[in-house]
Amino acid sequence: MSDDLRTPLYDLHVELGAKMVPFAGYAMPVQYPMGVMGEHNHTRDAAGLFDVSHMGQVILSGASWDAVAQAFETLVPQDVLGLGDGRQRYGFFTNDAGGIEDDLMFARRGDDLLVVVNAACKGADIARMKVALAPAVTVTELADRALVAVQGPGAEAAVAALDARAADMRFMDVADLTLDGVDVWASRSGYTGEDGYEISVPATQAEALVRTLLAQDGVAPIGLGARDSLRLEAGLCLYGHDIDTTTTPAEGALMWAVQKVRRPGGDRAGGFPGADKALETPARKRVGLLPEGRAPMREGVAIYDSETATDPVGHVTSGGFGPTVGGPVAMGYVNVEHAETGTPLWGEVRGKRMPVQVAAMPFVPANFKR
Amino acid sequence: MKFTEEHEWLREEDGEMVVGITIHAAEQLGDVVFVELPEVGTTVSKDDEIVVIESVKAASDILAPVDGEITEVNETLVDNPGKVNDDPQGEAWFFKMTVSDPSQLEELMDEATYQKFIA
């Protein structure tokens, strides 16, 4: 762990009693004394604070918003040009085979684009953007900013207590706020299925801000363990597991994130890597999987269409216990003929076939402020 | 009470051994969400994987601490796996077993040695 990078909140995590683990090259809190289950439930019931400073924050700037947006559209299959000022979207970088190189959030801040990418991919992502977009677009990593998320039904009250404008933001809005004297960039979004905010703050002011946020009613620090079970119940992908360079957006059931204007027949169709393959009708698809018994079906569990079939029809890419569901939940890929909700399938756990059903996601209803 | 390096405890009761996992093991595992027990009557050898226990973090096995036969299992853990965190060295025993080779018990640790082992 001594080689791992530290976020600006490292010392605070240790002070709060976190168990630190290596994750994507950083020493990160996997849990605090409350424990994974307690932290998960606390986030759904009140509010959780997550350090996500390991993620990459990158600003793209150029001669105009149109220039930046058009350039970014050569890397992603999303409608960037049509993004209103102060709005954010989910997207992904594709490769020439139509696979997903990383998933990301992008937000329009005036004429600039703020892109937030996964920690494990950020080096490659920044290099990709520089190669493809320079010199017309300047790509600047904001290594001097921390990122924290406040998530849960109590998030609005906690953040709005420090800046009332937070309450006026809708899901996927971005805005400048001043929280206890600290100027931050906030977005109303997250990775838990709950209402909440993601807050970009200068690294030097991050610890003070987080202490202030933790002092608000109902806000507790939450580690990576609960972050994973929360996002799994919300049906959200974990890059490198549920989607990767070999899965297309169509296979990943992410077509909702490809706006009409970028699809075949749209005004700005194609023009991103692997456009001819990324959106093709797939032979397999990411689905929710609800095991019928109590045994969790974890990543790698093979899925069959009968108790005795020899060839699998799919596999689990994320799975575990869902504390809010009160039982095991999973997601994975199955052949499209088995992808309909309600299809009875079998997962092989420790050599035993156990019944599992294709299920709609999210497993827990989303609680966004639309 | 005797202890294994696999963080199990064994308590003698009516000529049999009652087996569970230690407080230390329960803390390391985190919240237990699933327990799969062996069938009563199963003959086991030392180090056989006989119980599956899953926490919010991962799956792990409990190994047979000695050779013998399973005589009773704690079914209440199947419906209430969280008991393993609440009372690992008390109510949340996993199984009872006979011991076919009592000399194997001599290789186990006493409490003081176990405390040093985990320190």
Automatic annotation (TrEMBL), chain A:
<keyword id="KW-0808">Transferase</keyword>
<dbReference type="GO" id="GO:0008483">
    <property type="term" value="F:transaminase activity"/>
</dbReference>
<dbReference type="InterPro" id="IPR006223">
    <property type="entry name" value="GcvT"/>
</dbReference>
<dbReference type="InterPro" id="IPR029043">
    <property type="entry name" value="GcvT/YgfZ_C"/>
</dbReference>
<feature type="binding site">
    <location>
        <position position="198"/>
    </location>
    <ligand>
        <name>substrate</name>
    </ligand>
</feature>
<keyword id="KW-0032">Aminotransferase</keyword>
<dbReference type="GO" id="GO:0005960">
    <property type="term" value="C:glycine cleavage complex"/>
</dbReference>
<dbReference type="InterPro" id="IPR028896">
    <property type="entry name" value="GcvT/YgfZ/DmdA"/>
</dbReference>
<dbReference type="Pfam" id="PF08669">
    <property type="entry name" value="GCV_T_C"/>
</dbReference>
<dbReference type="Pfam" id="PF01571">
    <property type="entry name" value="GCV_T"/>
</dbReference>
<protein>
    <recommendedName>
        <fullName>aminomethyltransferase</fullName>
        <ecNumber>2.1.2.10</ecNumber>
    </recommendedName>
</protein>
<comment type="similarity">
    <text>Belongs to the GcvT family.</text>
</comment>
<dbReference type="GO" id="GO:0006546">
    <property type="term" value="P:glycine catabolic process"/>
</dbReference>
<dbReference type="InterPro" id="IPR013977">
    <property type="entry name" value="GcvT_C"/>
</dbReference>
<dbReference type="InterPro" id="IPR006222">
    <property type="entry name" value="GCVT_N"/>
</dbReference>
<dbReference type="InterPro" id="IPR027266">
    <property type="entry name" value="TrmE/GcvT-like"/>
</dbReference>
<dbReference type="GO" id="GO:0004047">
    <property type="term" value="F:aminomethyltransferase activity"/>
</dbReference>
<feature type="domain" description="GCVT N-terminal">
    <location>
        <begin position="9"/>
        <end position="260"/>
    </location>
</feature>
<feature type="domain" description="Aminomethyltransferase C-terminal">
    <location>
        <begin position="284"/>
        <end position="364"/>
    </location>
</feature>
TrEMBL record, chain B:
<comment type="function">
    <text>The glycine cleavage system catalyzes the degradation of glycine. The H protein shuttles the methylamine group of glycine from the P protein to the T protein.</text>
</comment>
<dbReference type="GO" id="GO:0019464">
    <property type="term" value="P:glycine decarboxylation via glycine cleavage system"/>
</dbReference>
<comment type="subunit">
    <text>The glycine cleavage system is composed of four proteins: P, T, L and H.</text>
</comment>
<dbReference type="GO" id="GO:0009249">
    <property type="term" value="P:protein lipoylation"/>
</dbReference>
<dbReference type="InterPro" id="IPR003016">
    <property type="entry name" value="2-oxoA_DH_lipoyl-BS"/>
</dbReference>
<dbReference type="InterPro" id="IPR000089">
    <property type="entry name" value="Biotin_lipoyl"/>
</dbReference>
<dbReference type="InterPro" id="IPR017453">
    <property type="entry name" value="GCV_H_sub"/>
</dbReference>
<protein>
    <recommendedName>
        <fullName>Glycine cleavage system H protein</fullName>
    </recommendedName>
</protein>
<feature type="modified residue" description="N6-lipoyllysine">
    <location>
        <position position="57"/>
    </location>
</feature>
<dbReference type="InterPro" id="IPR011053">
    <property type="entry name" value="Single_hybrid_motif"/>
</dbReference>
<dbReference type="GO" id="GO:0005960">
    <property type="term" value="C:glycine cleavage complex"/>
</dbReference>
<keyword id="KW-0450">Lipoyl</keyword>
<dbReference type="GO" id="GO:0005829">
    <property type="term" value="C:cytosol"/>
</dbReference>
<comment type="similarity">
    <text>Belongs to the GcvH family.</text>
</comment>
<dbReference type="Pfam" id="PF01597">
    <property type="entry name" value="GCV_H"/>
</dbReference>
<dbReference type="InterPro" id="IPR033753">
    <property type="entry name" value="GCV_H/Fam206"/>
</dbReference>
<dbReference type="InterPro" id="IPR002930">
    <property type="entry name" value="GCV_H"/>
</dbReference>
